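As noted in the main text, all predictions were made from sequence alone. Below is one such record, for Serine aminopeptidase S33 domain-containing protein.
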Amino acid sequence: MGACLSTGCGMSTILGCLLLGFRCNVGKLQASFAFFPPNPPSYTFHESGDGTGVLKYSEAELQTSADALLRECHSVRCFARRLITPTGQSICVHHFDHSHSSVTFLWSHGNAEDLGLVFFVCAQLAQRLGVSIVAYDYEGYGVSTGRPLEKSLCRDILCVYDYLIESGLRANQIVLYGQSVGSGPSVWLATKRDVLALILHSPLASGLRSLIPDGQLSCATMQGCCSPIYMFATCDMFPNFKRIARVRCPTLLMHGTVDEVLDVSHTMQLHKNCPKEYRRDPYIVNGAGHDDLAEHDPKGYFAALQTFLDSLEPHTKSTVHSPHECASAPLQPEGHGA
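Prediction:
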């Protein structure tokens, strides 16, 4: 109990000192401690004459693996392009277009990732589920310009959503998929725009809650006046635990039981706060961590997503491809995680 009692006040004191060090600039504090874009980026962008382009890995071995995977995922066509946000920043968008898809995932990746590092899982997911995927790099990630902030991530996902609608997609064809920090802009957009569904993969309840040690979120001091989640509530980044109550679409949450970055209690709190008519039974993977939810049980992961898609409108149903298709490549480059 003693350790628990010291946690709330101690964390609040530390956060207060850090905020003062940044002259009370919450944005700068977030940028310094909340976002970790890969440096250098895992890829480069090579533009074609038609406004599109391709991504090339900086590491030759990864490029060879990616080329081999695309030959196996014969129904998926990949291309990239740059979008300009309303503030003039350039963000990179990568398409995984399935030839027979009726649904498109708008993919918001995790922290410490970029488009190159999510290529493998996106390509295989598109092929196996028969869906298209459009992933993007936040400002300051990959080759996207700008600086990652909560408001810029929300601006980025809205820019991609508007681009998809302008390209001819209907709102009821778009499924938001947010992993880890990507759950923040995904939940935010789900409260602002119509979408078919929302999928949250190892999500966070809020930025401040992600700082609280496992199992102490319900501790008395974390619920008291000295708790950072109350003292700095106005500075809390991505308050998904509040925003999810305003979501108006079917929602699937997925989490591993031994996640050391974001405890599974984050998903359970989000599930509890999600409107009853929209929440689905969460997909909880025993023994999985933060970065290996799909790798820990690929069959279960793909089956959970397929079951969720099949529970939506009839036109979203697709056939799961053979487990041998696209099975030779890893779901994630070795040594990289969210």
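Confidence is low (pLDDT under 50) at residues 1-6, 218-222, 318-325. Strands lie at 43-47, 52-57, 76-84, 90-98, 104-108, 132-136, 174-179, 197-201, 251-256, 283-285. These features were considered when defining construct boundaries for the mutagenesis experiments described in Section 2.9.
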